[in-house]
Write a structure and sequence with these properties.
Number of helices: 8
Order of helices and strands: HHHHHHHH
CATH class of the domain at 29-143: Mainly Alpha
Distance between the termini: 75 Å
Helix content: over 70%
Shape: elongated
Strand content: under 5%
CATH architecture of the domain at 29-143: Up-down Bundle
CATH topology of the domain at 29-143: de novo design (two linked rop proteins)
Structural class: mainly alpha
Largest sheet: none
CATH superfamily of the domain at 29-143: LemA-like domain
Radius of gyration: 21 Å
Length: about 190
């Protein structure tokens, strides 16, 4: 009886709850990344219909998707900073490749006029927004978990039961985003 009271007062149940919240939030992140990966073949097929389109850009998108979907993600990924970083990097590469594809597609009036491409573009933009929301929820869940893992007295429970702080998403291009954007109104 004393053990049950001691465990309930030391944050053990909170660790269970927050660990499950973290896993659920991570599953939603994966769900949205999968949605994006599923859109890529349709986007590539639509763009291939434009004969003059840059093949390098399409190749980069296809290769980035292949790398992103080749990484096996398991629940242990959340507790392995190296695997988590590798997954995050692959997803970032796919996002960058898709962004370049959308920018380059602006130069092709026939492609921009293609209703299928416009629909896919809207779906992709919506998916990117969903990814942002899912990542933010995951970041919040990890923050709640990590605060519990580092706060006294629950940090003692964390040590006893091996609850390590979980990695969160990090900005891959921190140096680039800290530089102010270049604005040049002279170019079209």
């Amino acid at each position: 009886m004393l053990t049950v009271l001691a465990l309930s007062g030391c944050g053990y149940n909170d660790f269970q709850r927050l660990d499950e919240q973290t896993k659920a939030a991570w599953s939603e992140v994966l769900n949205q990344y999968q949605r994006r990966a599923d859109l890529v073949p349709n986007i590539v097929a639509t763009v291939k219909g434009e004969a003059a389109f840059e093949q390098d850009t399409l190749t980069q998108v296809v290769e980035a998707r292949a790398r992103a979907t080749a990484i096996q993600v398991t629940p242990e990924t959340l507790n392995n900073p190296e695997a988590f970083k590798k997954f995050q990097q692959a997803q970032g590469e796919l996002g960058s490749a898709l962004s370049r594809l959308m920018v380059v597609s602006e130069r092709y009036p026939d492609l921009k006029a293609n209703q299928g491409f416009r629909d896919l573009r809207v779906q992709l933009e919506g998916t990117e927004n969903r990814i942002t929301v899912a990542r933010n929820r995951y970041i919040q869940a990890v923050q709640d978990y990590n605060v519990l893992a580092r706060s006294f007295p629950s940090n003692l429970t964390a040590m006893v039961f091996g609850y390590q702080p979980k990695p969160s998403f990090a900005v891959q291009n921190e140096a680039q985003i800290s530089a102010p954007p270049v604005v040049d109104f002279g170019k079209k």
